[in-house]
Design brief:
Blueprint (H helix, E strand, L loop, with lengths): L7 E4 L13 H10 L5 E4 L2 E3 L3 H5 L12 E4 L2 E4 L2 E3 L9 H19 L4 E5 L1 H15 L3 E5 L3 H5 L5 H9 L3 E4 L2 H9 L7 E3 L14 H8 L6 E6 L8 H14 L3 E6 L9 H10 L6 E5 L3 H10 L2 E4 L8 H8 L4 E4 L4 H4 L6 E4 L4 H13 L4 H10 L2 H23 L10
Parallel strand pairs: 1-2, 1-7, 2-5, 3-6, 7-8, 8-9, 9-10, 11-12, 11-14, 12-13, 14-15, 15-16
Antiparallel strand pairs: 4-5
Helix pairs in contact: 1-16, 3-4, 4-6, 8-11, 9-14, 12-15
């Protein structure tokens, strides 16, 4: 079945479901907005192996398995399974992911008229999408989101990244640092674009500070830091906890809000709570759990400074969400962080792993009078709508290229 416009199949193993409502929200935010302009359907393959249910008896949150299909905001989301033994055969994940998705994608091509696969994360998703594209004669676009840097350092996975990048029509990177990595791995310069993430400025805007603090039991005079993200080592909550005793000496009414929960990467809440207790700051640290986007603006509005001592990022949406609520950002100089926090009036970027410099930056940020209106204006200038316009245009261009390539030579239009 051919169509005169792109009919997208969004392909990502990280996507929200009823059993993991917080997974991949940034992908859904982006592509559901594209879906207002172009027809879309989602395929989110899930890892599986025989005996997986036995592990859940000891680890109840291990690989929660959604239903085979859900409807979200009128969009079909399919969750096929693929063979993936835990901790083994990572270099085969892409092949098994493609194999497990083949029947679903073949049926959607026939019934929905899918004519373009839009994949997210180079490996294993992008590699699998490239295989599906070849097997089913479908063009593929690929968005790089940050996992590509550590994968590129793995000698087993790096060749698979190279294959994934060379088998697609467009490479979208959420930051220029990721685009430069893609070019080093062999992506074609003319077919790669930087399209950052955006922010929903309607959903993320300041709430009344007094009410926000009252909800959390914080005094009006408290000084408040906040971090948001999955409770995993990479996000660096432990690095902020490490310097909290030093900060508390100068800021006796200092509090630290941690918003987040478990993710497929793990769950370090118990370790973080233990660290706070050992450091003697447990009463200052508030674990708020994972919050839906519509509630996140409240703790952001209660805070003074947003901090994320992360070890790796592509383009952290949460920076813009914090800025949309008027917060300056203090973060580490990794991935695309400096591209998001690109000006001094937006926050501070410090070397990764330098606890002293991070502590000094937070002391300065807490003492500084920030132009919060300017910070909010910067966030609004990076709305999702601006990104979506670019993406829709690119998808349409890819579709035209494919149609032109398939058209018999004698029927192709030539310039007058």
């Amino acid at each position: 079945m051919k169509a005169d416009s792109p009919r997208l199949l969004v392909y990502s193993s990280l996507f929200p479901s009823r059993v993991q409502p917080g997974a991949g929200l940034f992908i859904r935010e982006r592509l559901f907005r594209v879906g207002r302009h172009l027809p879309i359907v989602v395929v989110s393959p899930k890892p599986w192996f025989p005996g997986q249910s036995l592990i859940r008896r000891f680890r109840p949150g291990y690989r929660p398995m959604p239903a085979r299909r859900e409807t979200q905001e009128g969009v079909e989301v399919h969750y096929p399974r693929f063979f993936a033994p835990p901790g083994m055969l990572r270099q085969w994940d892409g092949f098994f992911m493609a194999l497990g998705s083949w029947r679903t994608v073949w049926r959607l091509k026939r019934e929905f008229g899918v004519n373009l696969i839009d994949a997210h994360f180079a490996y294993p998703d992008g590699y699998a999408a490239g295989l599906l594209g070849r097997w089913l004669d479908l063009p593929v676009t690929l968005t790089l989101r940050g996992t590509e840097l550590p994968h590129s350092r793995n000698p087993r996975l790096r060749p698979l990244l190279v294959r994934a990048l060379r088998g697609v029509r467009r490479v979208f990177a959420v930051s220029d640092s990721l685009r430069q990595l893609a070019l080093r791995l062999g992506a074609a310069p003319g077919d790669s674009r930087v399209v950052g993430n955006g922010v929903d400025a309607e959903k993320f805007q300041p709430r009344a500070r007094g009410e926000a603090r009252h909800r959390l039991g914080l005094s009006e005079h408290a000084q408040v830091l906040i971090s948001v993200g999955a409770l995993v080592e990479r996000k660096g909550f432990h690095r902020v906890l490490e310097i909290l005793p030093r900060l508390a000496q100068r800021h006796p009414d200092l509090h630290y809000l941690i918003v987040g929960g478990a993710s497929p990467e793990g769950d370090r809440e118990a370790e973080l709570r233990a660290q706070a207790a050992v450091l003697g700051v447990a009463e200052r640290v508030h674990f708020l759990g994972a919050l839906p986007p519509e509630e996140l603006a409240w703790p952001l509005s209660a805070a003074d400074v947003f901090v994320l001592a992360t070890g790796n990022e592509g383009w952290a949406n949460v920076f813009l969400e914090a800025m949309a609520c008027g917060l300056p950002v203090v973060t580490t100089d990794v991935g695309g962080n400096r591209e998001v926090v690109g000006r001094d009036e937006l926050g501070m970027v410090v070397p990764f792993g330098d606890a002293g410099t991070l502590a000094h930056a937070l002391e300065r940020a807490l003492a500084k009078t920030w132009d919060r209106g300017a910070i909010r204006a910067y966030a609004r200038a990076n709305s999702w709508d601006r990104r979506v316009d670019i993406l829709v245009s690119e998808f349409q261009a890819v579709h035209r290229e494919v149609q032109a390539a398939e058209m018999p030579t004698g029927r192709r239009r030539t310039a007058p």
